[in-house]
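User:
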Amino acid sequence: MKGDLFSSEHMVQPATAPGMTVENAKCIRYAVNGEMLARQGSMIAYRGNLQFERKGQGVGGMLKRAVTGEGLPLMAVRGQGEAWFAQEAQNCFVVDVDPGDEFTVNGRNVLCFDASLTYRIATVKGSGISGGGLFNSVFSGQGRLGLVCEGNPLVIPVSAQFPVYVDTDAIVGWTAGLRTSLHRSQSIGSMLRGGSGEAVQLMLQGEGYVVVRPSEATPHKPQQH
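Assistant: Predicted structure:
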């Protein structure tokens, strides 16, 4: 079959360097030369000599996931080749984590990342009982982190003069150094009268950036077996 039957915008070009690139708005391509990590079940195609192995969380990790509801069902991808990753046609973007820095992200938004990065599950300080939950994953080290969200993400600067208030169901992640707390934007009287549906937000203060998706969280659909 001749390649010119297809539009050039859909044709995959050879990788120019190892590592992670955004193939298109809905997909991340990873040129593997050694090892990387990805969400289980997110691989949609690959070529080359690659092995996929489920990565256990250990007893401590399983207990954290059971208690917090937060966790990353990961697989290790090893060898040499190229693999493509996607999650329910959500939009993909990449965050570069630098040495000494950290990026806090909701586990549901993680697609894949460099093996040079490490992560831990941490309490979101001041979050209380909110729709966004109490726990997120904190990435550190040096490398690239591939994320997904519904629609194109909004990256909003946060400064000491201008804190940012985010719906707890819309927040994706934020940079190190930001302080979090709950902010109530409605009076009790307004809430009793039905309110606006925007009663509580996560307030972020300090210097950095917050990533927000342009939609609120939707209930997870159970997989069909």
